[in-house]
Amino acid sequence: MKLLAKTPVALVLSLLAGPVVAQGDCAAGKTISDGMLTIATGNPAYFPWVIDDAPESGEGFEAAVAYAVAERMGFGRDAVKWVRTSFDESIQPGAKNFDFNLQQFSITEDREKVVDFSEPYYSAAMAVLVRQPAIAAGAQPTIASLKGLRWGAVATTTAVPMLTGLIAPDSAALLYNDNPDVIEAMKSNQIDAALFDLPTALYLAAVVLDDGVVLGQFPADRSENPDRFGLLMEKGNPLKACVDAALQSLKADGTLAAIEATWLSEATGVPVIE
Predict the structure, then answer these.
(1) Domains of the chain, start order
(2) Considering only CA atoms, which of 168, 174, 180 is closest in space to residue 155?
């Protein structure tokens, strides 16, 4: 998938030179390789989290976040080393071959018993998934347009109260047992649209549906209990405080929000529904 524009990327890169959490005061002696920050991602790593499976480019949401955190901790690009790990291996207890890992790890109580997470770097927005026929029929990323669609949802998810409270469709949503049932209903034209968290919607549109389209996304603060992603670390990692401080700095000056806008809105072409 091609990027829509290059200018926002340059803007994000320029923001990375913001306030630095001094390496000597915080990270020195706490990384697995002295003077180096070892960061892990998946094998392979996918768009829009990493572009072209090349995290060292810094392109893609998680690649950009990784370098921004490194920069605020005092590690230049030449002091960042990338390694690859599987998702399942990473969430197991025990020693790690990385300082932190980004693979869309949701922060959960069960996982926090065996690994450490940073504070969240992303709260997953809810997104509207449709197929091309809905686009051809005039569906738009506006509340007024969404009201006229035929909706489906998994009965036990937060998508249901969001549908009824925020979108309030003209016809009652059809309820299903799980995500595969919703997708089958969409394929058989029983429904026009469904709500999923943005990462799931992007995957379904690109991999599961031949003609899937992510029509739009709601701001994360309009979702109930959004899925939160954290940087994963070995349990008890002394680097956690440094990572959290770097993320707090990135949030405070708007850099993290700019990275999210660049890679999860502009690069994916998914507009925000206001």
Answers:
(1) 7-123+227-266 (3.40.190.10), 126-222 (3.40.190.10)
(2) 174
